Amino acid sequence: MELSKNCARHLLKIKAVKLNPTQPFTWASGLKSPIYCDNRKTLSYPDVRTFIRDGLAEIITKHYPDTEVIAGVATGAIAQGVLVAERLGLPFVYVRSEEKKHGLTNIVEGVVYPKQKVTIVEDLVSTGQSSLKVAQVLKEMGCVLQGMAAIFTYNLPIANQRFEEVGLPLHTLTDYAVLVQEAALEGYIQTNETQTLDQWSKDPAAWAEQFK
Fold first, then answer.
1. Residues 51, 3: Cα–Cα separation, whole Å
2. Cα gap 84→141, rounded to integer Å
């Protein structure tokens, strides 16, 4: 739990996470949210970058000890994945959201073989759809998936359901509940704003109705 709290504090301090319960952000999917997380910012802060690298490496060592290859999710987790792979002394590949339209038309960049044990590194998990698409690509290549390690998860019910359905373990450095708690304690949000943030996490679509 202390690791999770420290990670949340780091993300809040460098403004990688923005919270605004009254003027929600609109995600690329169209979903309205009181929170926006941009973990790419962590790469610009060496101490935070190292903390996250070591934290993800610790997750993989503990939960996926048989890992033979690290696979980063493009584009947000490519740099994080490289750092973790270097830390663990393992090969690295990354998986695109779709095949290239030119050249070799690869969807997986790098070298990975069927039956190799692969752990996926992701920067964040929202609905789980794009993250699990990467898992499916690797599975179809014959890789043996160990699980996924991510910096942050919104812990949305739909994502939890999707991961459970495909049987892919997910371990993260921190999550939405811890982030909101730390944000309130550190004064980033008012204590009375935590209620609306909790409501969103339980049913984002219903919460967003008030802004139509």
1. 10
2. 22
Nearest to 73 by CA among 108, 117, 31: 108
Summary count for the chain: helices (H), strands (E): 8, 10
Q: What is the pLDDT of residue 154?
A: 93
Percentage of residues of the chain with pLDDT beyond 90: 68
Q: How far is C-alpha 19 from the geometric centre of its chain's CA atoms?
A: 17
The residue range of the domain holding 187 is: 2-199
Q: Are 21 and 194 in contact (CB under 8 A)?
A: no
Q: What angle do CA 188, 54, 91 make, to 5 degrees?
A: 130
Place of tokens 């033979």: 68
Q: With the CA atoms of 33, 162, 169 and 87 taken in that order, what torsion angle do they form, in degrees rounded to the nearest 10? A: -50
Cα–Cα–Cα angle for 28, 125, 109, nearest 5°? 85
The two three-digit tokens of residue 119, written as one number: 């752990």
Phi, psi of 139 (to 5 degrees): -65, -40
Domain count of the fold of the chain? 1
User: pTM for this one?
Assistant: 0.92
Largest CA distance in the chain: 54
pLDDT for 103-138, tens place per residue? 445 899 999 999 999 999 999 999 899 899 999 999
CATH number for the domain that contains residue 105: 3.40.50.2020
**Is residue 206 in some structural domain?**
no
Residue 74: count of CB within 10 angstroms of its CB = 17
The token pair at 156 is: 């949305």
